[in-house]
Amino acid sequence: MAKLNFIMLSFVVLVVANTCVPSLAPKKLWDQCVVKISPNCALKIISQVFGDGVVSISCCKELVQEGKECHDTLVKYIADRPSLIGNESKYLQKRDEVWAYCVSVSKAVSPA
Known about the structure:
- It comes from Brassica carinata (Ethiopian mustard).
- Residues 32-103 form the Prolamin-like domain.
- The protein is mainly alpha-helical.
- The protein has six helices and no strands.
Protein backbone atom coordinates (compact mmCIF):
# COMPACT_ATOMS: atom_id res chain seq x y z
CA MET A 1 0.00 0.00 0.00
CA ALA A 2 2.88 2.37 0.75
CA LYS A 3 4.28 1.81 -2.75
CA LEU A 4 0.90 2.62 -4.31
CA ASN A 5 0.66 5.80 -2.23
CA PHE A 6 4.15 6.76 -3.41
CA ILE A 7 3.15 6.14 -7.05
CA MET A 8 -0.03 8.18 -6.71
CA LEU A 9 1.85 10.97 -4.95
CA SER A 10 4.49 10.93 -7.70
CA PHE A 11 1.79 11.27 -10.34
CA VAL A 12 0.12 14.14 -8.49
CA VAL A 13 3.47 15.90 -8.10
CA LEU A 14 4.14 15.39 -11.82
CA VAL A 15 0.79 16.93 -12.74
CA VAL A 16 1.16 19.84 -10.32
CA ALA A 17 4.74 20.50 -11.41
CA ASN A 18 3.72 20.49 -15.02
CA THR A 19 0.84 22.83 -14.32
CA CYS A 20 3.17 25.33 -12.72
CA VAL A 21 6.23 24.74 -14.88
CA PRO A 22 5.33 22.83 -18.06
CA SER A 23 8.95 22.71 -19.21
CA LEU A 24 9.83 20.20 -16.46
CA ALA A 25 8.42 17.26 -18.43
CA PRO A 26 8.46 16.35 -22.08
CA LYS A 27 6.10 18.70 -23.89
CA LYS A 28 4.43 15.84 -25.78
CA LEU A 29 3.65 14.02 -22.53
CA TRP A 30 2.00 17.08 -21.09
CA ASP A 31 0.29 18.59 -24.15
CA GLN A 32 -1.03 15.43 -25.71
CA CYS A 33 -1.64 13.06 -22.83
CA VAL A 34 -2.01 14.33 -19.28
CA VAL A 35 -4.60 16.97 -20.14
CA LYS A 36 -6.84 14.47 -21.96
CA ILE A 37 -7.97 12.60 -18.85
CA SER A 38 -9.40 13.76 -15.55
CA PRO A 39 -7.10 13.56 -12.52
CA ASN A 40 -9.61 11.28 -10.77
CA CYS A 41 -9.60 8.77 -13.63
CA ALA A 42 -5.83 9.01 -14.01
CA LEU A 43 -5.44 8.05 -10.36
CA LYS A 44 -7.89 5.15 -10.72
CA ILE A 45 -6.01 3.84 -13.75
CA ILE A 46 -2.67 4.17 -11.99
CA SER A 47 -4.17 2.43 -8.97
CA GLN A 48 -5.22 -0.53 -11.11
CA VAL A 49 -1.94 -0.77 -13.03
CA PHE A 50 0.33 -0.38 -10.02
CA GLY A 51 -1.92 -1.70 -7.27
CA ASP A 52 -5.28 -3.36 -6.77
CA GLY A 53 -7.63 -0.55 -7.78
CA VAL A 54 -10.52 -0.87 -10.21
CA VAL A 55 -11.19 1.41 -13.16
CA SER A 56 -14.83 2.44 -13.65
CA ILE A 57 -16.58 2.29 -17.02
CA SER A 58 -16.65 6.09 -17.21
CA CYS A 59 -12.88 6.19 -16.63
CA CYS A 60 -12.43 3.48 -19.26
CA LYS A 61 -14.24 5.72 -21.73
CA GLU A 62 -11.85 8.58 -20.86
CA LEU A 63 -8.87 6.27 -21.24
CA VAL A 64 -9.96 5.02 -24.66
CA GLN A 65 -10.63 8.59 -25.75
CA GLU A 66 -7.15 9.56 -24.51
CA GLY A 67 -5.66 6.88 -26.76
CA LYS A 68 -3.36 3.89 -26.43
CA GLU A 69 -0.19 5.84 -27.20
CA CYS A 70 -0.84 8.24 -24.33
CA HIS A 71 -1.78 5.41 -21.96
CA ASP A 72 1.36 3.47 -22.87
CA THR A 73 3.55 6.56 -22.58
CA LEU A 74 2.24 7.64 -19.17
CA VAL A 75 2.43 4.17 -17.62
CA LYS A 76 5.92 3.59 -19.04
CA TYR A 77 6.99 6.99 -17.69
CA ILE A 78 5.89 6.00 -14.18
CA ALA A 79 7.14 2.38 -14.44
CA ASP A 80 10.62 3.66 -15.32
CA ARG A 81 11.04 5.18 -11.84
CA PRO A 82 14.01 3.58 -10.01
CA SER A 83 11.75 2.21 -7.26
CA LEU A 84 9.50 0.47 -9.81
CA ILE A 85 11.83 -0.60 -12.62
CA GLY A 86 12.35 -4.05 -11.09
CA ASN A 87 8.68 -4.87 -11.73
CA GLU A 88 8.37 -2.97 -15.00
CA SER A 89 7.35 -6.01 -17.07
CA LYS A 90 4.53 -6.77 -14.59
CA TYR A 91 3.29 -3.17 -14.78
CA LEU A 92 3.45 -3.09 -18.56
CA GLN A 93 1.43 -6.31 -18.71
CA LYS A 94 -1.17 -4.82 -16.34
CA ARG A 95 -1.16 -1.66 -18.50
CA ASP A 96 -2.07 -3.77 -21.52
CA GLU A 97 -4.74 -5.65 -19.56
CA VAL A 98 -6.33 -2.39 -18.40
CA TRP A 99 -6.31 -1.09 -21.98
CA ALA A 100 -7.94 -4.27 -23.36
CA TYR A 101 -10.58 -4.23 -20.62
CA CYS A 102 -11.36 -0.56 -21.17
CA VAL A 103 -11.66 -0.99 -24.94
CA SER A 104 -14.05 -3.91 -24.47
CA VAL A 105 -16.31 -2.17 -21.94
CA SER A 106 -16.28 1.06 -23.93
CA LYS A 107 -17.44 -0.78 -27.05
CA ALA A 108 -20.09 -2.63 -25.05
CA VAL A 109 -21.69 0.57 -23.74
CA SER A 110 -21.21 2.74 -26.84
CA PRO A 111 -24.29 3.45 -28.94
CA ALA A 112 -24.21 1.63 -32.27
